[in-house]
# Entry
Amino acid sequence: MNLQAMLKRLRADIGPRRLIEPGERIVLAVSGGPDSMAMLHGLVALNRADALGWTMHVAHLNHGIRGADADADADFVAAQARDLGLACTVEHRDVPAAAASARQSLEEAARQERYAFLERVCLRTDARVVAVAHQADDNAETVLHHILRGTGLRGLAGMAVSRPIRSGSQIRLVRPMMGFRRDELAAYLDEAGIPYRSDLSNESDEQTRNRLRNRVLPMLRDSVNPQVDDALLRLAEQAQWFEAYLEATAARAFETLVVSRTDQELALNVEALLKKTPILQTELIRRAIAALRADPETGGAILDREVGFQHLRAVAALAADPSSGKRISLPSGMTVSRQYRRLVFSLPSDQPREALAAEVAVACPGRTLLPVRGLEITTEIVAYDDTSWPAIQRGKPDSQEWVDHGQVRLPLIVRSRRPGERFWPLGAPGTKKLSDFFIDAKVVPEQRDRAAILCDQLGPIWIIGYRIDERVRLRRSTTQALKISAHPTTADRPNPPGASSANPI
# Structure
């Protein structure tokens, strides 16, 4: 494959799908292997040829697994970025130690560390897009892996071409090379004379994915179907179409079924639920579990790994049982009960809690009352001079924070924490899960669930009462500061003049 053929294919895949808009800031995840090097050089060439105005930043994480070879990979990527005139960030993480500490597989720990690193680089460079180099053969292997593990329909869809880098994030992870096969990218590199690094660990059969690539798929090609990769990719494409249709249908129907909702309990109209088809019933039940967040510490992972089809089918059977008062248990302590015409999903709790709005718009500048949380938030945009900060800091109460207004992406909202959510605590070396931050700060579980998180479009900027995010800290270059105060209020306190009511979004 020559350069012109590569550019033609990239245009066809990126443009219609709007994977990367003109003028975007992009972080390119480059390992130094053939796929990522093809992506790096292909996107650089496309940017120049079509004058797309992309600002690209190369990111490489040394996982601390392969010793001197990994160090050589990092040096190689940094040199390649320098030759192309691109900025580059290289970091090192001891993934084996992280895996042992979290009792995870090496593969899962590496994935988590890699995506957390890529998100940090995005926040530092003001990028909204991360490009990774997964290609079609990777997707076929993923679908086969899911099938052999006993996947549901979602697993058949394989890798998404575009998705948030984590739940709730405004940063998108895109896969611009998904339309290419591995041998096509190798042909492009050979034609263009582009160097790359080879990871010898890919030849080992210790990892499941390597066994599928090196042994299972070749056997299937030889003994069953020479076009097995194409068959898996067609299956993935059809599953993606079906998943998109099912999610859109369920999204439209879900809110019409909700009878009541607090942060502890959600009830569905069981008679309306039973009128849906079985597959739509299970999708709506899954949405109810997700809306209630069965486990705030692990969030969506609970849905994908612990709440399986057998649980969804059990809840559907409970809904179909006309007897009232029956109850079943789900992972993370959630219970589901049939109460006359309601199907009630409940979280464990010793005391009932008031309902919290999912999101509340915050006036900026201005005042916003949050009666249920007992807070009054005041925001003010003020001129800032770095020399005045020591005096400001001496008189600043704990209920007040100052952030760089230029780094804030309006509008502002207040909400509760989201499953698996991360932020970068001021002064910390990098991002961490909110759940870990609360544990380190010795915040009791009841307070973690009701903590107020002030967010802009990119995510948390202040865990109110605890810490601001490094992204919005004051800098020497700051000329305007956003002064934010969060004072406790009481239910019988009158609205101050000019205060806005809490506006759920």
